[in-house]
Amino acid sequence: MRHWPSSLRALRHRNFRLYFIGHAISTLGTWIQQVALSWLIYRLTDSVALLGLTTFAALIPQLLVGPFAGAWIDRHDKRRLLIMVEAALALQALILAGLTASELIGPGLIVAMAALLGVLNAVDTPLRQSLLSQFVDDRQDLPNALALNALLFTLSRFIGPPLAGLLLAVVSEAVCFSLNAASYLALVIGLACVRQLPSQRASGSFRNVFREGMRYALDNTQVKQLMLSVMVINLTASSYVVLLPVFARDIFAGDARTLGWLWGAAGLGSLIASVVLAGNRNTAPLGRFILASAAGSALAMLVFAASTQLWLSLLAMAVLGFAITLCNVGTNILLQSEAPEALRGRVVALYTSTRFGFDAIGGLLAGLLAAHLGAPAVLLGAGALLLVYCSWAARRSRVKHG
C-alpha cells in the first residue's frame, strides 16, 4: 500500500480517496450556492430578518429530523442511500436555479427551498459522516479521515466564498445554483466506484433502534457534556454567518466581493484548524482544546463586533473560523472514536442535529434581534454569553477533576 504522510494517512485507503475527490468538488459547489443565496436574499429584500429566517429554515430540520434519521440510516445500506440523497440535492439546486433565472423566486419560495435543502441535509450529513468508518480499513485512521473530511469543508469554505463573490460580479445567482447542481455528480460517481465493504446494520424495529441510540447518549457523561458544548457554541458563535452580509454592505460599505472575503477569512481559520486536527494522533487532549477554543470564539466575536477596520475584522473572522472548527470537528472526532460501529449513524445524527439545529436557532435569533438592535450589538451579546458559559464549564471541570 502506498505510503502517505501521517497527516494524510486516511488517503491510503482507495474507497476514502474516491469519496474525498467527489466530496471536494461537491462541497465547493455547496459554498458557492450558500453565498449566492445569501446575496440574493439581501439584494431582493434588504431584510436581515429574512436572512435569519432562511438560515433557520435550512438548518432546523437537522434538529427535528436528524435524530430519527440516524436510526433510519443504521438500518439501511448507507452507500446506496447516500447516492439517492445526493441526486435529490442536485435536483433541489436545479429547481432553485430555474426559479431564479425565470424571476419567479421570492421570499416565500426562498424559505421553502431552504427548508427542502434542510430536510435533505438532515439525512445527508450524518449519512456521509457515518460512512467514513467503512471507507478506511484501519480504525486507527478514522480520526484522520474525519479531520480530512472537515479539511475539505473548510478548504471549500476558504475558496468558495471569494470565488462566489467573483462569479456574482459577472454572472447571475442562477448560474451559481446550476454549478452546485452539477457538482453533486462528482460525489455520485465516486460513490458508484467505491468497493462496497460489509457493514453492520442495526436490527429490530425503528422505535427500538432509536431508543437504543438515545440511551447510549443519555447514559454517557462525556457524550452529554460534549453535546452541551456543541449546543452553546453553535447557538452563539455560529450566528455570525447570518450577519455577515450586513457587515459587508452596511458597516464596510462593500459588495458581494467584500462578503466573499469575510467568509473566506473565516474559512482560512477553519482550514488551519482542520490541518492541525489532521496531523494530531492523540485524541486525549481534545476536551481541553475544545473549551479553550470556545473562549477564543467569544473573544473573536467581541473584536469583530466592535471593529470598523476591515483588516482587523478579517483577522477576527480567521480566529473565529479556527476556534469554531476546532470545537465542532474535535467533538465529532471524540464521539466517533468512542462510538460502537452499530450505533455510529445514531451518534453522528445526534451530533449533527445538535450542531446544525442550534446553529439554526442562533441564526434565527440573530437575524430577528439585529433587525431591532443592529448586527454589532447582537454579536457583542452572543460573545458575552459564550464567555459566561466557558467560565462555568471551566469551573465545573476543575471541581470534577479535583
Automatic annotation (TrEMBL):
Record's subcellular location: Cell membrane
Keywords noted in UniProt: Cell membrane, Membrane, Transmembrane, Transmembrane helix, Transport
GO CC terms, sorted: plasma membrane
One Gene Ontology molecular-function label: transmembrane transporter activity
Topology relative to the membrane: Multi-pass membrane protein
Record CDD domains: MFS_MefA_like (cd06173)
Domain Major facilitator superfamily (MFS) profile: 15-399
InterPro entries the UniProt entry points to: MFS_dom, MFS_trans_sf, TM_effector
Database matches in SUPFAM superfamilies: MFS general substrate transporter
Entry-linked Pfam families: MFS_3
Main localization of the protein described in the UniProt heading: membrane
Segments passing through the bilayer: 20-42, 48-69, 105-123, 166-194, 226-248, 260-279, 286-305, 311-335, 347-371, 377-394
Name this polypeptide is given: MFS transporter
Organism: Pseudomonas alkylphenolica
